[in-house]
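Async update (no meeting this week)

Hi team, since we skipped the sync, here's where things stand on the single-chain job. The sequence we agreed to prioritize is pasted below, unchanged from the tracker. I ran it this morning and attached the output directly underneath so nobody has to dig for it. Comments welcome in thread, and please keep replies under the output.
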Amino acid sequence: MKTNLYVCTNENIFFIMDRNKYESLIPYGYKSVIAERSGVTRQTVSAFFKGRTNCKKIEDTILDVIAELKNQKEAKLKKAGLL
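Output:
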């Protein structure tokens, strides 16, 4: 039993590490955007980042936002002739 608990805890650590990485990639104020797009409250999004709740819809929205931000940055760099 303790082995399963340890494995479960270990997996949770990896999820929290991923969430910390996600949080470092989004700019200030984007938790509200994520909440609006995923149809949940800002409190739920904050709970997701703290590892208190799991929601596939929130994670998918976060990944979409990160992809959009990356594409916008690349487009600006191309327009400036830096890429």
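Quick observations from my side:
Confidence is low (pLDDT under 50) at residues 1-10.
Residues 2-25 form the longest helix (24 residues).
Reply here if anything looks off.
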